[in-house]
Amino acid sequence: MSFDNVCKVLAEKYSADFVRWLIAEESTNVKVLKTELSLDPIRADSVTFLQTANQILHIEFQTLTQSNPAITFRMLDYSVRLKRQYKCPVVQVVIFLQETDDEIAFTEEYVDDTTIHRYRAVRMWEQDSSLFLSNSALLPLAPLCRTDSPRDLLSQVAQEVAKISDRETRQNTAAYTEILAGLRFEKGLIGQLLSEDIMQESVIYQDILQKGEERTIIRQLNRRFGEINSSLIDQIKLLPIEKLDTLAEALLDFSALSDLVTWLERNTSS
C-alpha cells in the first residue's frame, strides 16, 4: 500500500500544519518546492520540501529503515543540494511510520572520517496522540501514535473523522487514515471502525491506490527486464485501476518485454 504517497499528499496539502508540528513555526506562506533533486545515485519517492520565509523544511517518510543509499547519507546529500540551490538554512526530519528497534530509526547523524551531518528523526510510535487527534490535517497519522490500547486509539480517531462537517474533507481524511492505519491494524478492525463506503467514494483514495499500483508494476518490470522505455510507462499510467490489477497478475507470466507490449496492445485498444 502507498503509505509514502499518503504522507506526501498530507504534507503538501497541509504544509502549514506540518511546519507548525515539526519546527514550531507559524507561517501563512509555505511554498511546496517541486524540485525532485533526483540525480543519481539519490532518489526518494516520499521526499517533500517546504519553503518558509527563511528556511527549507525537508521531510522524508519512511516505512522501512533499510535503503540504498542509506538514509543517513541521503540526508547529507539532500542538504548539500538544497543549500547549493536555494542558499538558505535547511531543517531535515525523517519520520519513521512503523515501529521498529532498528538502530537506523534512532540515528540522527551521518558520520564518516571527515564529515558529521545532523538531522532529526521522529518515531511515530513515540508521539503523543493528543496533537494529532485535535488537528484534522494530522489526524491520519494518529493511529500510529503512542498508546496503551491501540484499539481505543483507533476508535478515537474514527470518532474525530466522523466529526468533520465537510463531506469531501471527511471522505479524504477517512481514506488517508485507513491506509496509514494499515501499518498497525488488521483490515477487519479498520473496516469496523472506519466507514468503508466513505473511503471508497473518495477520489483521492482511488488516486493514491492507482499511483501505488503503477509504481509497483513499473518497479517489477524494471527489475525483470531492465529500464523500460517511457512510451510503455505512459501507456501503463493510462490504465484504470482494474486493468492495473490485471496487469499485476499477468506480468508474472511474462518472459520477455515483448509480452508486455502484446498485453498493452490487447488491453488499451479503443
Based on the model shown, name its key terms.
single chain; 270 residues; alpha/beta; Trna Endonuclease, Chain: A, domain 1; five-stranded mixed sheet; two-stranded antiparallel sheet; 12 helices; globular
Structural notes for this entry:
It comes from Hassallia byssoidea VB512170. The chain folds into three domains: 126 residues, Trna Endonuclease, Chain: A, domain 1 (3-Layer(aba) Sandwich), CATH 3.40.1350; 73 residues, no CATH class; 65 residues, no CATH class. By secondary structure, it is an alpha/beta fold. The radius of gyration is 20 Å and the shape is globular. The strands form two sheets. It has a five-stranded mixed beta sheet, with helices on both faces. Strands 5-6 form a two-stranded antiparallel ribbon. α5 packs antiparallel against α6 and α9 packs parallel to α11. The protein is built from twelve helices and seven strands. β5 and β6 form a beta hairpin. About 2% of the residues have low confidence.
Characterize the biggest β-sheet: 5 strands, mixed
How many domains, as an integer? 3
Would you give the CATH topology of the largest domain?
Trna Endonuclease, Chain: A, domain 1
Q: Work out the radius of gyration.
A: 20 Å
Helix content: 40-55%
Give the low-pLDDT segments: 39-44
Rounded average pLDDT:
86
Residue share in β-strands: 5-15%
> Going across the major beta sheet, what is the strand order?
1-2-3-4-7
**Total number of beta strands:** 7
Overall geometric form: globular
Can you write the helix and strand succession as a string? HHEEEHEEEEHHHHHHHHH
**Under the CATH scheme, which class of the largest domain?**
Alpha Beta
In whole angstroms, the N-to-C terminal distance is 30 Å
Structural class: alpha/beta
Q: Report the total helices.
A: 12
CATH architecture of the largest domain: 3-Layer(aba) Sandwich
